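Dear support,

I submitted the protein below through the web form. The confirmation email said the job was done, but the results page showed an empty box. After a refresh the structure appeared. I'm attaching both so you can tell me whether what I see now is the final result or a partial one.
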Amino acid sequence: MGWLLGVVLLALAVAAPATARAAATSATAAAADDRPVLTLGVFAYRPKPIMLQRFGELGGFLSERVGSHRFEVRAYTGPELQAAIKAGAVDFVLTNPVHFHVLREYGALSGSLASMVMRAGDQPLHGIGGVIVRKAERTDLASLHDLRGRRIATSGFNSLGSFVAPAAELQRAGVPLDGLQWLVVDQPIDRVVEAVLGGAADAGFVRTSVLEDLQREGKLQAGQLVVLNPQKVPGFPLQLSTRLYPEWPFLAAVHVPPELSHRVAVALMSLRPTDAAALSASVYGFSIPADYSAVEQAMRELGVAPFDAEPQTTWADVWQRYWVWIVALAGSAVLVLLLALGLALNTWRLVHIKRDLQADRAALQSQREELARLAHFDALTGLPNRRLLEDRLNLALARARRNASLLALCYLDLDNFKPINDQLGHAAGDRFLIEIGQRLQQGLRADDTVARLGGDEFVLLLTDLEHDEAWPNALHRILERLRQPVAIDGHEVASSASVGVVLFKGAPGEQSADPDSLLRQADQAMYQAKQEGRNRYRVVEFKA
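What the results page shows now:
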């Protein structure tokens, strides 16, 4: 034992300087970055170190994409986050939908900039819900009705998965909530599981993904807990006891300039599932803001804060409301006139407030539409971007397999675009690309797709081809359009294209084709056409 203790002490002595050096290196790197700091407050429903480990990479991602600022991620409990928002200590907030409605009452937050999309492996998870658990030995608790009068553990009443969603499910099942005994264990939500396993509570409420996280971390063994009222939702692999609600919103504080909020929202939309920040946070990415009215409706039905307050009537309220009649009994007509003036003033203010609210609502709708457009369309040409192309290609592949039909994927690269940019300038090059995009669109059918991947690279997706000669005729027409000169600033410029074509013949049960493989083979065929002399196309059949 003595020699073992000595080895441990020696290991600690060696590790301590290394840890200190790592901390000093990190501090030096932060000090070298003199950009203004923006704080992202994350609601810590799990232990703070776990939350910081998960979302720390997101701060680095935003620092890189926004550029003008450095983002620092901090984890807060519910009360800590509320205090930080009141003090103006956070600039952006990532929290659960119920907490969002609570924080919004302080008037210190904007609307949602984006909604988080969780993941299960490589698949997106659309929604969040609650899980009602009991200890495996408690066979007396077989259904929701068996929870009447029982002791229920929750991390707090400001949580969607740990209270609102399960409580709403119990209420809909006819279980009276006022007959339950609540054990509030506070954050992190791991304490709910500990209370159930330790016998301090008969059952507990946790949010989806917590049980899977605890098992993955070795803190919970399979079979220790049983899920009550299990739900099976297609495409949702996590354990679930309730209906699904929208996932966490990403919010901005009111003091953050709208232009900066817009840049952050665009950066969030660009997060890809394979990025380090997405993998670290176990998220698939971010989507346009979801509709959180279902969460608010559930909160109102349960009467939880901030929808639990009843109006208080005091003598001061009575005086303020009926003082005209009291004074009228004394015969003072002058005060009646003052009341009329006060009502007119309030009416004028309400009209202006309503107008401002309508303007804010219109601006928010415009921002949402712009974010949706940026997520799926190229900013220069207005053509579908790579993300929308992949969605349409997935649908086209499925239709080709179902109907045993033919589709052609054409990868175009302009041959003489760089000289146009060099001689006439980038503005002229942009106008040339816009004209090329319009000509490509005009040469296609309504069901076909033309997309811009970037630079001078375009993709044509020709679907439901009736015979093998259908696609060459369409491609010849399009290439002929591209060769026609374009008038720009008094100059006539023209460019041919090198094209790689991949043909895919659908068949029932065929599953080897996917958008990435088709695009890759079409790109390779395009390079072969360019090496063979440009202004031509090269055709290959898809190979798995």
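Response: this is the final, complete result; the empty box was a page-load delay. The longest helix spans residues 333-376.
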